[in-house]
Amino acid sequence: MSELNAAIRDIPLPVRMKRRPISERGFPVPWFVSWINGRWDFVNLDPRLIVEAYKRRVCFLCGEPLGRFLAFTIGPMCSINRVSSEPPAHRECAEYAVRACPFLSQPKMRRNDKAHLGTADNVPGIMIEHNPGATLIWITKSFEPIRADGGRGVLFQIGEPIEVAWFCEGRTATRAEVDAAIAKGLPLLRKAAASEGADAVADLDLYIKRAEKLLP
Q: Are strands 171-172 and 163-168 parallel, antiparallel or unpaired?
């Protein structure tokens, strides 16, 4: 195995992720990353792999078969509507991702503007373009695909949580950090609900109260 990047060398690498290739920058290559023009492309997610992961029931990060417990790596807004744009992973793979992925572990990092597959115009659901600032690992036993509004692909409705864990900067997040992350993204959900009418606004208020029980 190639040498890992110094920034993540001390983070224990799950056994399944050890079977993944290492990029030229020294990061394990998740299963969903495409090989384009002779290089690993971490920026542009191939939507076909989302469907493949679901149909084959494999971990979105390591590509190996999933077990009974499913880990969704989601942002604060997804904890409110319980919808994920990505299929689940193994718990240990998800925990590694929130510690080692530069975007997830560094709240000040911005999305790469070279992405052309993952843009607000062709990503299903409501795309949060800013870094959420905090990440949630949501453990559940169930999920199901749902058709995104406008027919722009598939999303996943995630089941009742068995356990949740909040992270920020690769460590356990504080309540203040989670509150700040929610405050940052909530106006986008409120705007979307308002555009759908009074019933959607009322539903959102209920979802927010439900999500408050999951806060650290």
A: antiparallel
